[in-house]
Every structure is written in structure tokens, then in C-alpha cells.
Specification:
With 265 residues, the protein is of the alpha/beta class. The chain is 45% helix and 18% strand. It has helices spanning 17-20, 25-32, 35-57, 61-72, 89-97, 110-117, 157-167, 189-207, 212-221, 226-235, 261-264, and strands at 79-83, 102-107, 126-129, 142-148, 168-179, 239-246, 251-257. Bound molecules: S-adenosylmethionine.
């Protein structure tokens, strides 16, 4: 099992090509690049992104986003933030689940968000471009901060969690959905074959991008284990933290609540 570790400066150490058993140099370079470069990669595949998701997950991705929404218990008047919103599916799921929500959604890729804005139900959502590690928003502003398939794209997940906690009101909920690193799944070799052989080929065929769908499996390899992510939530001060997995442990949903003053005493 490849162990992912943090370097002392909090940045993730990427497995070397020999550790991962692959010549991953172009993809390693992409992991080390800035948010704009990752955004540019998503922009290049934006028009095929939803189709690829539906094919890769057999349409189950919609159920997982719905589970995120259910964990948030959204109520009218609440302010929701969806980070790395992409084509807006999670933000739109909130809009369908409850009326009277004030939904904000951000991404580095304008092309992904343009597709979101064209979807039915998108009109009331406030879309804006921003790096999830540096959000131009005030502290204690949101009742709910969520993301789906964003966290493994960020160079410093601990800093990302801290930034999300900063934005939450006391009592607010943080929930995120992500792909689990291959060694934590129950499917073993079959999952690795799907991720490292089927997904890149299918992605190249449908999206025309060889890089984006080679980056996808590689990004799961450098992502923290569900247990490490749970620790990050606790270290950031969240309470009632937990995670659940679905699809034979291939998908995880982490959640926690920002303490109120009453919780502190
Ligand atoms: C795999 S897609 C997920 C999209 C959407 N949340 C969903 O459920 O399908 C990841 C998204 O995160 C965005 N992203 C990557 N790095 C980011 C960053 N540092 N800040 C904000 N968005 C980022 C990408 O542009 C892309 O749209």
C-alpha cells in the first residue's frame, strides 16, 4: 500500500513514478501546478464533463450529490456555498431540494460555470470565479459549505478545510464528496484497472483530452485517505465529524459542524 504523507510545509508529497509504478511525469507536473492550470484542464473538457461523469458512475453521481444535500438539512433562508462547482450539479441539487435558499457557487473554470449557468434552475444561483484556497469572502458567512470532487484537486487540503471553516457561521455544516484512493476500496485490482486503463481511454475518446482523464486516477492516488481527511476536519475545529463511503468504498462523504459559542463552554 502506498502511504501518502504530508511534508513539513503542509504540501503533499507525490508518489514517485517508481512508487506508483507508472511513468506519471506530465501528470505529476499538473498536480504541482497552480489552480489556473487545473482550471484550464477542466475548461478543455467542460462540454463533455457531465457525459463522462454519467458514464463513469452509471448515473450514480446524482444520488451521491443528493446525499450531500440531505446531510446538510437545508432550510429556507440559508446561505449555501458550493466550491469547485464545475457544471453546477451540486448547487442545482440544493436548488431542487429546498426553496428559498441563497445559493452561491464558485470555480476557477469559467467554461465549466458557463455550462452551469445555462442549465434550468441556475438563474437564482450566484456564480463567481475564485480559487477555493483563497476565497474573497468574509468570515462566518455561510450556513453550509459543500464541494463534490474538488478536494483531491487542491495542493493543500488542510488549508482548504481551514478556509471552508472560516467561511462557515458557528453551527454551520461542512460536507464534501470525493473519490477514495484506490487502496481503500474493496474492489482492488478491478477498480485500478477501471481507473487507470478504462477511464483514460474512454476519456480520450469522448473528451478528446488525454491529460484530463489520466490526471483523474492519478489525483486519487495522491489524495488523503478518508481517515486522514477526517483528522483534518477535527484539527480545523469541527465537531460531530464523520465520513461515510458508498459504491464499494470508492466514494467518501465527509461532514462536520462548526462549533457555536455554547459548544465551546
Ligand atoms: C471534478 S470537477 C467537479 C465539478 C462538480 N463539483 C461536480 O460535482 O461534478 C472539479 C472542479 O474543481 C475545479 N477546481 C479545481 N481546482 C480548483 C481550485 N483551486 N479552486 C476552485 N475550483 C477548482 C475545476 O475547475 C473543476 O470544475
Amino acid at each position: 500500500m502506498t502511504k501518502r504523507t504530508f511534508s513539513t510545509d503542509g504540501n503533499r508529497r507525490l508518489p514517485s513514478p517508481s512508487e506508483s509504478g507508472r511513468d506519471a511525469d506530465p501528470i505529476r507536473t499538473l498536480h504541482q501546478r497552480r489552480a489556473e492550470d487545473i482550471g484550464a484542464m477542466f475548461s478543455a473538457i467542460a462540454d463533455r464533463y457531465d457525459l463522462m461523469n454519467a458514464i463513469m458512475t452509471g448515473g450514480r453521481d446524482r444520488d451521491w450529490r443528493r446525499r450531500v444535500v440531505d446531510l446538510c438539512h437545508p432550510e429556507p433562508g440559508q446561505r449555501i456555498l458550493d466550491l469547485g462547482t464545475g457544471t453546477g450539479e451540486l448547487a442545482l441539487t440544493f436548488g431542487r431540494a429546498a426553496s428559498g435558499l441563497d445559493i452561491w457557487a464558485s470555480d476557477v473554470s469559467m467554461e465549466m460555470m458557463s455550462l452551469a449557468q445555462a442549465k434550468p434552475g441556475a438563474a437564482p444561483i450566484c456564480f463567481f470565479q475564485a480559487d477555493a484556497l483563497r476565497l474573497p469572502l468574509q468570515d462566518n458567512h455561510f450556513d453550509v459549505v459543500v464541494s463534490a470532487f474538488l478536494m483531491r484537486n487542491l495542493p493543500d487540503p488542510a488549508a482548504a478545510v481551514r478556509e471552508q471553516v472560516r467561511l462557515l457561521k458557528p453551527g454551520g455544516r461542512l460536507v464534501f464528496l470525493e473519490i477514495v484512493p484506490p487502496e481503500f476500496t474493496w474492489l482492488g485490482k478491478a477498480y485500478k484497472f477501471f481507473m487507470f486503463s478504462v477511464v483514460p481511454r474512454l476519456g480520450r475518446l469522448l473528451s478528446g483530452s488525454a491529460t484530463a482523464y489520466s490526471y483523474l486516477p492519478s489525483s486519487t492516488q495522491v489524495y488523503e485517505s478518508p481517515f486522514e481527511m477526517l483528522s483534518l476536519l477535527r484539527e480545523a475545529g469541527l465537531r460531530q465529524t464523520a465520513f461515510a463511503t458508498c459504491m464499494a468504498n470508492t466514494i467518501s462523504i465527509h461532514h462536520g459542524r462548526k462549533p457555536t459559542l455554547a459548544d465551546e463552554h
